[in-house]
Amino acid sequence: MQVLLNTDPHTDGRHKMAEHLETVVKDALDHFGGQITRVEAHLSDANSHAKANPDEIHCTLEARLVGLAPVVVKDYAATAHQAIHGAVGKLKRAVATVLAKHESHRNTVLPGDVT
User: Fold this and answer.
1) How far apart are CA 100 and CA 85, in angstroms?
2) Is CATH 3.30.160.100 the right assignment for the domain spanning 2-106?
3) What is the pTM of this model?
């Protein structure tokens, strides 16, 4: 699984942040095996010039699933690390739901099907 990090000019996207993202994503999604080909992360500071709201770091994660539509989640937090962890938790649940629904549809026997 490939993990890519994209940041805006106001967000720290150094090598250390990319390594942290890759570790967190792979630890959370590893059990999905080869069903996820790529995860793209977009970190941005929505209000970099005026910190009125503490939850201004946005993390958007997009997981590319083999043969299925991408799964996209967002999380907002005070720090990039918190936003990443929140988004990864949401992504793990969303991917599990999509794959479970896909599996149940694949195994559904329709009336008139010969078994």
Assistant:
1) 23
2) yes
3) 0.84
